[in-house]
Amino acid sequence: MGFFNSWKAKKTKKNTDGWYQLADFLGIDVENTPKSALSNATYYACLKTLSEAIGKMPLKVLSHPTTGGVREEYNHPLWKVLHDRPNAYMPASFFWSTMEFNRNHYGNAYAMIVGAGRDMQLYPLPSSAVELWYDNAHILRDVDDVYYIYAGNDGKRYILSSDEVLHFRNSATYDGIVGKAVKTVLSETINANIKSQKMINNLYDNGFSGKAAVYYTGDLNDDLVKTFSKGIQNFIDGKYEKNGIKNVIPLPISTKMETLANTRLSENQFLELKQYSALQVAAAFGIKPVQIGDYTKSSYASAESQQLSFLVDTLLYIIKQYEEEITYKLITSDKYYAKFNVDVILRADFRNKVETLSTAVNSFMMTPNEARAKLDLSNREGGDVLVGNGASIPITAVGAQYIPNYEEGGKN
Fold this sequence. Notes:
single chain, 412 residues, alpha+beta, three-stranded antiparallel sheet, 13 helices, 40% helix, flat, disordered N terminus
């Protein structure tokens, strides 16, 4: 297929920077990515947190069998595609992380659907190279639909219908079709953070010293002034450290240097303002302060509750969107549906996990084998029967100890 060949050509595009090759391979448009935005530590940390959160959750295919309940469909044709490897070039964790990265950074993430069933492949599309059209005038095709027009690396334009593309959008959207990038909403805050970081870098480069005035007697022409000033600046910048000169600036006789202004970050409340800006960026992503390294109001217990809050307040909305889009466009039968396993976000320590599973078994909620599976243990004979009440009485025999001459089946 011409489109797939174009994707492969883009993947193998020569570039001397390894990061650009990796980003290009993952579908991230490095040419049109504002590098200043990604250089902001808080912004990058938020993208990383959300991308890894989606990537670490296994995506499963489940069903509602006629006997009731829910069952994992390991033999479903799409299980391997969704759970293990969406395409031949990346595992599921990288693929879904890439989708989430593009969804936040660009406002929209796209994946092209190729093939069907066990042969299906999902390929990420560069978000900046995709244009959306709602063709109710039948200009592109004879069917009213949202069409995705992709500008391929080979110079061609490919028209894909809505059932050929998985589309995940940011929650900030005016029409429900096209998402708005977080960096666009927070452009002023992110730019302020970038400027503050540049200020810190400049202060480090200048040894945290402000601008200075040099007083000297005599007349110097412009060229000599430049040479004189450059020599002093070289000492300030530490260019003679290799010669053992670090904190000394030699001045000629009758020359005096005076600092114009000292840079006091505390007086300008710089750190407080920088922290406030970082929290603004994190709040826009739905990221908790502890997840960007702000532990000022955190403890171990609150961090655990914040993780639960992160799942409920932030991830559930994102996860629901993924599950709805995948189920609608990839799974044809109403019997099956796709669902992320959110338990990995709330993994408890081994003791709490065992106690929780024991309670579930003793309350007839889970069979012993189902509980063992949660601990990655093998099944045991007789472990598929619901037991409980501490004495491990099968649910079908509850109260039997009070019936004289009880026989299996509830008869006496």
